[in-house]
């Protein structure tokens, strides 16, 4: 007998797995100890009666690498949590969920080893139903060491790299339980994964919705009736969908729901107008609530289109690093950074070499940032890329990222790596295969990788390098921007190009003005290339590193801001260069005439709902397409400054006024 479903009202999407029947936070106070000679498992540190009187008491999320006593320690460490738990209700199961643990971890509950995980930035879950009791001892062994088999890690021997470079990667292996921990009680049959694909018809204004639901432990003999409801601004939106088989899925509980959302109920997601919906699905005793957005991102020739409109935007790379916190990324710091990024016009970013937190993507969804999400493969060698074990590890980390993040409207593309030797046969094979793997998980998004070879003279034709296999070209470059971009465009005249890294260090010039001049020249070059869709500065912030070339203070000083987030001159220069409009003014007879012009070179996109602030007066700019202008007249007391303000209150441009 086949599993039966009745669809009452549908639409839901990004699955967080945390909005379900019962969730208890287990982060907070834990006991902690280092295990530098790896005796913990042999001596049974995980047992309930093991004495913890001399252990540290720490607060999870926790990064042991930033504790002054263990600074930059590499090796094993243990976390112990004791907690009480009421019995799991009949017909339910209990799961531990770790949002991220760097890098390898093993989990024990009440003297039983329950599982292991490898990968430092993606979530994992372990079924603890049979081990759970009224009084519980949860033990986690963590190891942040790296070698040639970890991702990220060291390189296998290659002729093109010095041994001291090859043994390290350029960011710190911040060890610990770096993100939240939960105990989740679910019904035995529960919603395991949900994926939604929105395909708006930009002419009819309707939207085709395709939703996949995977139920875990589905019993084919029992009838389950999913109830799905969608809201916008807390108001229910009508929607009818049809059920169809989930294609090649092997899961008994997999299904697709497909239908069309009426034009009157569709509000597209834009960076300046990031409309979000809230959705709920109930399947049996399980419930998921989440948000999503409706937008269409595509490449056509050399253009990147958002909802049919060409966009060209600035962006940044943000290494996950903050003094005294390492890679924990507290919400207060995260929101401060993202507000500076948004205000700086850095809205289309390959923001990190590894999966970022859901908190970052939630903020990006809410405030309008576009993100290329990247996992692993920082300069893997040909030997590593051809190793089936390494490929499997990468695919595991990549799929954990994709299945967690595939419904965030801010994520528009996946990256399958950074600066690997893409001109080799192994690099080409990797790119072709991982592109196919990414599309098998999520065909609705674009796929790219950050190349350090595509702009080089050794690349003469598309067949010479792996960029031939991806949807748009991403290139890391430091100088010679115009010639590099023209070289790429000559090889790929019909592909969009994105500069995934560019910039200059603070110690690469005599003064900060030297960096500002470097930026001005880069922007002059970028604006001559109509095939360029974006450019991300390396980096938003300075970051700690062991990599050769790091300064004696332990930092690589690429940042627009200091480690403590003090704004440097380069931040203000970027803010002006990346602003999507220019502001000009003239004073006539006590009046101030102010003209706002949307850029049509770089960056370039349609402005929506901006405001011009002048003294106590504010002018609304309803919409400006690239190249269009609007003029406003200010009459009032003398003002010192004019500001261009994005929706959400982000000031992206300031002009001093002398009347």
UniProtKB/TrEMBL annotation:
Residues in Glycoside hydrolase family 2 immunoglobulin-like beta-sandwich domain copies: 189-295
Glycoside hydrolase family 2 catalytic domain mapped to chain residues: 297-490
Signal peptide: 1-19
Domain Glycosyl hydrolases family 2 sugar binding: 25-187
A Pfam family hit: Glyco_hydro_2_C
Domain of life: Bacteria
Alphabetized Gene3D superfamilies for the sequence: Galactose-binding domain-like, Glycosidases, Immunoglobulins
MF-aspect GO terms: hydrolase activity, hydrolyzing O-glycosyl compounds
Keywords tagged on the record: Glycosidase, Hydrolase, Signal
One GO BP: carbohydrate metabolic process
Membrane-crossing segments per the record: none
InterPro entries: Beta-gal/glucu_dom_sf, Galactose-bd-like_sf, GH, GH2_Domain-Containing, Glyco_hydro_2, Glyco_hydro_2_cat, Glyco_hydro_2_N, Ig-like_fold
SUPFAM superfamilies recorded: (Trans)glycosidases, beta-Galactosidase/glucuronidase domain, Galactose-binding domain-like
Family to which this protein belongs: Belongs to the glycosyl hydrolase 2 family.
Protein name in the entry: Beta-galactosidase
